């Protein structure tokens, strides 16, 4: 068995698939509801009742991730891999991605890199693993290795503009903004006239060529959906024109009220304009949309809006509640400490 198979199915000697039961099921329901503490309580009861298995250990690891207890999470994912019978299944790759994420959150970039290497030994064309290994290598100050991984990702699918933007963003976060922009310029040159106005617009946005961005996105907004309106509004915000940006968001919401991201960005724009009541209303409207993927941002921004309205007590209550769900947000923690003194 090679290094990849060994890591992907490590600790096989633990053996056995174990069994699920009522407590495991209750824990899964709590996990689905993002109630991580309740999930752990049920999983502890499951273990005490003799319930075991890969699914339990994996779910327990995810719950610990939610509680930002990354060392405990990694231990659970390693245990889950131990239930492998020697055959590498889709769930084993899934668990390894979680394991690498836990290591990354702990700052253990070397361990994360090793996991991604194991995945790539088995699936050399796994673009996600290549991209994430590049992230881990940046954490190890291995810029050359990271660039090699990113270059491979681009060669595999140079028209995946979402991925190109992700590469730019991570390079920017590590201080390599210009190199990140090089990928974007290369994509624009390769795309030529075949690149859509929407894709050109968002590339221009990240290249900080905001006038070119909003000219392209004005063309794309009727066909590009919420994403085009988001980038269009943000391009105007970047030039300081918050009034027009707000009109972009409001015009979109006049036609479609189902996208929480638009409400969130409108709220941020209203904060910048100094209309804190309008900002609060926008954030709270976005929060009413079930299953949205910006709830964390909306919850944080709602508390900030109350702070701007000088309702420090409500802001403190909301920030405290927010931190129970997102305890590793250090910006929110500092904000809560400040609010607690008001």
Structural overview:
By secondary structure, the chain is mainly alpha-helical. It folds into three domains: 1-122, Alpha Horseshoe (Serine Threonine Protein Phosphatase 5, Tetratricopeptide repeat), CATH 1.25.40; 124-195, Serine Threonine Protein Phosphatase 5, Tetratricopeptide repeat (Alpha Horseshoe); 275-342. It is built from 20 helices and no strands. It has helices at 3-8, 22-32, 36-48, 54-66, 70-81, 90-105, 109-122, 127-139, 143-156, 161-173, 177-191, 197-206, 210-220, 225-238, 242-255, 260-273, 276-287, 295-308, 312-325, 330-339. The termini are far apart. Residues 1-7 and 9-19 have low confidence and may be disordered.
Short description:
This protein has 20 helices and no strands.
Write the layout of secondary structure elements.
Elements: H1 3-8, H2 22-32, H3 36-48, H4 54-66, H5 70-81, H6 90-105, H7 109-122, H8 127-139, H9 143-156, H10 161-173, H11 177-191, H12 197-206, H13 210-220, H14 225-238, H15 242-255, H16 260-273, H17 276-287, H18 295-308, H19 312-325, H20 330-339
Helix pairs in contact: 2-3, 2-4, 3-4, 4-5, 5-6, 6-7, 7-8, 8-9, 10-11, 12-13, 12-14, 13-14, 14-15, 14-16, 15-16, 16-17, 16-18, 17-18, 18-19, 19-20
């Amino acid at each position: 068995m090679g290094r990849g198979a060994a890591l992907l199915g490590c600790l096989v000697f633990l053996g056995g698939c174990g069994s699920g039961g009522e407590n495991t099921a209750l824990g899964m329901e709590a996990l689905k509801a993002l109630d991580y503490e309740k999930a752990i309580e049920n999983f502890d009861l499951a273990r005490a009742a003799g319930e075991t298995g890969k699914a339990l250990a994996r779910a327990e690891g995810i719950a610990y991730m939610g509680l930002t207890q990354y060392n405990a999470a990694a231990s659970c994912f390693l245990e889950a891999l131990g239930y492998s019978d020697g055959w590498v299944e889709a769930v084993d790759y899934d668990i390894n991605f979680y394991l690498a994420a836990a290591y990354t959150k702990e700052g253990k970039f070397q361990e994360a890199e090793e996991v991604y290497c194991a995945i790539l030994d088995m699936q050399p064309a796994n673009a996600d693993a290549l991209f994430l290994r590049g992230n881990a290598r940046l954490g190890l100050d291995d810029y050359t290795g990271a660039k090699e991984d990113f270059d491979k990702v681009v060669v595999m699918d140079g028209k995946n503009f979402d991925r190109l933007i992700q590469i730019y963003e991570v390079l920017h976060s590590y201080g390599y903004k210009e190199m990140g922009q090089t990928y974007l310029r290369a994509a624009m040159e390769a795309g030529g006239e075949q690149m859509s106005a929407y894709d050109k617009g968002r590339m221009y946005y990240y290249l900080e060529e905001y006038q070119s961005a909003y000219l392209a996105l004005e063309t794309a907004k009727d066909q590009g959906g919420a994403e085009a309106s988001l980038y269009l509004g943000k391009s105007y915000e970047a030039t300081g024109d918050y009034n027009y940006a707000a009109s972009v968001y409001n015009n979109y919401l006049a036609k479609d009220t189902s996208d929480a991201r638009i409400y969130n960005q409108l709220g941020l724009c209203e904060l910048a304009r100094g209309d804190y009541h309008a900002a609060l209303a926008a954030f709270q409207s976005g929060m009413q949309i079930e299953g949205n993927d910006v709830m964390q941002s909306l919850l944080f921004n709602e508390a900030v809006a109350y702070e701007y309205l000088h309702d420090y007590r409500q802001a403190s209550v909301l920030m405290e509640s927010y931190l129970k769900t997102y305890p590793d947000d250090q910006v929110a923690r500092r904000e809560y400490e400040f609010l607690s003194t008001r």
